[in-house]
Design goal:
By secondary structure, the protein is α+β, with helices and mostly antiparallel strands. It has 3 helices and 2 strands. The protein has a domain of 56 residues. A hairpin with a 2-residue loop joins strand 1 and strand 2.
Length: 81
């Protein structure tokens, strides 16, 4: 069995909740400008990976189901959350 060591990289959130993907992570995931990333939440762990075409199709399929929450009234009611 090989020894594996976890590496951690930190990024700061902007006021718009945006973060820069650290360069070692971009290199490892082979990310380039315009690529999409997927976030998976399972119990107490969040996994970040390069999004696949299947991820994008899944997200698009959810948009129609969740569209009932995207009215201007909802935007106003939940703007500060």
């Amino acid at each position: 069995m090989g020894n594996t060591h976890a590496l951690m990289f930190v990024s700061r959130l902007t006021k718009k909740y945006q973060a820069t993907v650290p360069e070692p992570v971009r290199r490892f995931l082979q990310l380039k400008a315009g690529d999409r990333i997927a976030f998976e939440i399972e119990e107490n762990t969040i996994t970040v990976r390069k999004a696949s075409d299947a991820d994008l199709e899944f997200a698009r399929s959810l948009e129609t189901m969740l569209s009932e929450w995207s009215s201007p009234f909802d935007e106003e009611a939940y703007r500060d959350l």
